[in-house]
Design brief:
The chain is α+β, with helices and mostly antiparallel strands. 30% of the residues lie in helices and 18% in strands. The chain has six helices and nine strands.
């Protein structure tokens, strides 16, 4: 059944609630099954709805096909396994194909192992990094999180994810000559592309207080998509008590 959310009536004229055919507006915890004819306001909303359904049943999803118009708007796209949504004249997306059959048994408890569902939250990342700096091994580090969470089933990541994160964190830690390394990096980037911009603010003792940089691609994107830009200062500080505050915008690819 197709329901227009702007004019929520059935063919017989009976009024219905807007939330009935748009799961993003339904605030209940019940997992709704995808149905042909559902409407969504964006491609992301379709993906989030289907990902939630897939996680609950125990299977993984991924984009399968998509067609992009000359203006950058996605005309239609498909997601395994398997739904298809088509862009409508009003800018929303409508599910035109919904196949819910699977060729194998589904185990909902296994869904947390799928890459699409894996995630380490920022406070946990910080705990892992602190424990690593304190000399705690990866296995013990991970096990401490497991115990605190109440078991492996309560986590959305495993020991391999923890090991990968800690290795990345170690590579990002700067050592002796940090200021010189940053200045050299900025200089090299500017030599490679004259539109790369950076600025370093020093205190009276010649120590770095603030850093600012923007690459050429971001500068070009801002000219075309500078309508809304967020400035987020909620990121954690590093060992020099310097917070990371990115400027974030959205382009025509979302």
């Amino acid at each position: 059944m197709d329901i227009d959310l702007n004019h929520p009536t059935l063919s017989g004229g009976e009024e219905v609630e807007e939330t009935e055919n748009n799961p993003s507006l339904n605030e209940s915890d019940e997992i709704e099954e995808p149905k042909k004819g559902m409407w969504f306001t964006s491609k992301q909303e379709v993906h989030e709805f289907y990902a939630k359904y897939a996680k609950n049943l125990g299977f993984a999803i991924a984009y399968r096909t998509q067609n992009v118009r000359s203006d950058g708007k996605v005309k239609y796209f498909g997601i395994e396994s398997r739904i298809r949504a088509i862009l409508q004249p009003d800018g929303r997306y409508k599910l035109t194909t919904v196949v819910l059959d699977h060729t194998h048994d589904l185990i909902p408890s296994d869904s947390r192992h799928f890459p699409m569902n894996k995630r380490i939250r920022t406070p946990v990342k910080r705990r892992l990094e602190i424990n690593d700096e304190a000399g705690i091994g990866v296995s013990r580090n991970f096990h401490s999180i497991v115990v605190e969470a109440g078991g492996y089933e309560a986590l959305t990541f495993d020991e391999r994810d923890v090991r990968n994160h800690i290795e990345n964190a170690r590579r990002l830690r700067l050592g002796v000559g940090d200021a010189e390394s940053v200045a050299f990096y900025f200089h090299r980037m500017q030599q490679e592309n004259s539109n790369f911009y950076s600025a370093i603010d020093f205190d009276v003792d010649g120590r770095i207080r603030n850093l600012f940089w923007v690459d050429a691609r971001s500068r070009a994107a801002y000219k075309a998509f500078g309508d809304v830009v967020s400035f987020d200062t909620t990121y954690l500080t590093n060992k020099y008590d310097m917070s990371f505050a990115p400027f974030v915008g959205v382009n025509h690819h979302g």
